[in-house]
Design goal:
By secondary structure, the protein is mainly α. It contains nine helices and four strands; from the N terminus they run H-H-H-H-H-H-H-H-H-E-E-E-E. Helices cover 67% and strands 9% of the residues.
Length: 298
Amino acid sequence: MTASVAAITTSAIGSVKFLYTTIDDIKDVPTTLGNIRSDLQAVQPVLQKLRTKLKSEDSQVLLIDKIRSAVENCNSACSTFQKSLDHWMRHATKHQAFWAEWTDRVRVGVFEQGKIKVLKGRLDSCKGTINVALSTSTMLSMTRQESMMKEVKDAMLKGNEVRLDEEEARAKRELAVIESSMKQLLVSIRHEVDEASKQSLEQLLEETQEQKASNEVFRKTCEEELLKTKNFHDGIELDIKNTKADNNSRAVAGLINTHGEVRNIKQNISDTSATGGSFAGAGIIQDLDLSIPSSGNK
């Protein structure tokens, strides 16, 4: 799965670079449009860092589903904006004499400032999602080192909790702004009589809905990484996946007969299985009698 996400990430990096080059090549580019370059410059190294992380052995600790959604949204945002920009440039070329006399404000208005705002929002959510996932993964890896002093670990974990709280709050504030924009667009669509203008507004509404989806991924990533950090800080971390038992064999996973006395649990276990009458156990297991026969498939 990480390989497919890496491929999507490579595609997104290409889309970001292409859009940046297109804007950079526009002569006398309007200021508002030109400012998108800084957003594209900010997200590109984050995507490159993600691609490197996905090639490492510990990439499985990432929230891959959230990462995939964020990168796909980034790629889609750049591709959609690129198409609109290409259309805008063709129109500008046909009306070059008139085009040269327009102010930046009017020129950007033709291209719709709403589209620029949506693109910047989608890029920001993508960057935020990846940064939160990567930084939490790195921080948890560091705090697992037994040589690190407890005071240092606690400070790092607490610092990450505070940062994730702030990022989640930022995502919620941005969501309120997005939903307000969507309401305004719906009103404008209902009252618009010109069919071409109405279609443009409907397209912008669709893109704003994509921005909302990207924001939601960012918020949920903050929420899940915050829970992961707090559980680790409190001494609880169990990530056990795909435990299986076939052919009347047995497989157990998790906390077995610990009676609450085991604390500070930190484990990551995957793909535990048992076949052919064998036994497989994953987790913390105490006082388990393996002599008790199995009674059919379980």
